[in-house]
Amino acid sequence: MxxxxxxxxxxxxxxxxxxxxxxxxxxxxxxxxxNNNNSSSSNYEIKWELxxxxxxxxxxxESIGEDLISIRVSTFAxxxxxxxxxxxxxxxxxxxxALLTGLEPKQQRLLFKGKEREDDEYLHxxxxxxxxxxxxxxxxxxxxxxxxxxxxxxxxxxxx
Length: 160
Prior knowledge:
The protein contains five helices and seven strands.
């Protein structure tokens, strides 16, 4: 019985065409066996990591600044364009918006895709992506309390 290797599998994992047992000079340089240090591919080294489940995988490269997304936060009067990490929570977004709007985080309600989002929900997990729109509303309870305070300070009570 003969076993055939898939051509795609063979090329991907280095079992491609060879001229002899040692491989071609180009294959040796790619694997780092060549003595010629002029090749930039000989400096490339694959790093591996062991996952908690015991799986050995190629280590991911740490990206700096690549996971920032630009979102537009709108209120009824204004809108704010800002960049934030995709792995941030809505609570962290509220803290950033507190600096921009003057509303405390507990006074804010954030809506995305028609649903109010909790502070512990992650932006990327609910689908917030590049150039998406998030709606910022003032919490009605705080709005009512603020109106009552304004009325009580503007109308002095008469004591007889």
